[in-house]
Design a protein that fits this description.
The chain is built from six helices and four strands. With 119 residues, it is of the alpha+beta class. It has one domain: NMB0513-like, CATH 1.10.3510. Helix 1 crosses helix 6, helix 2 packs across helix 3 and helix 3 runs antiparallel to helix 4.
Length: 119
């Protein structure tokens, strides 16, 4: 599992994760330019969504709402927004919600790290 994917999934076990948080994780991992961050975010979202680990959607007062468009269309929408909008406009354009499999993999990842640290 990619390090960015791992961070997003682990964060997602507790709550929905906005794009701004995923971009922040990408920066922590050494992606500094806007293009690097955007590419890392898009690649991570693609891997996780196609792998059945997350859903991409929006959040409002009633909760998370998964987009019903195919993954490719959702990513195209985000890529277009990344390329044309200011960061403030796309920070909360989309959110991720872990699937059961995403939660399972995140929990497994945390358990492996804890076990390694105890050894």
């Amino acid at each position: 599992m990619d390090e960015l994917d791992r961070l997003v999934l682990e964060e997602g076990t507790d709550d929905w994760v906005p794009l701004v948080a995923i971009a922040g994780f990408a920066r922590q991992l050494g992606h500094h330019s806007a293009v690097q961050v955007q590419n890392a975010v898009l690649q991570s979202l693609k891997r996780m969504a196609e792998g059945g680990l997350i859903e991409i959607g929006t959040v409002d007062h009633s909760g998370f709402h998964a987009w019903t468009t195919p993954v490719g269309e959702s990513l195209s929408k985000l890529e277009e927004a990344f390329r044309s909008e200011s960061a403030a406009q796309w920070d909360f354009l989309a959110w991720t919600c872990n699937t059961e499999e995403g939660d399972r993999q995140a929990t497994s990842s945390v358990n492996r790290r804890v076990s390694t640290q105890e050894d």
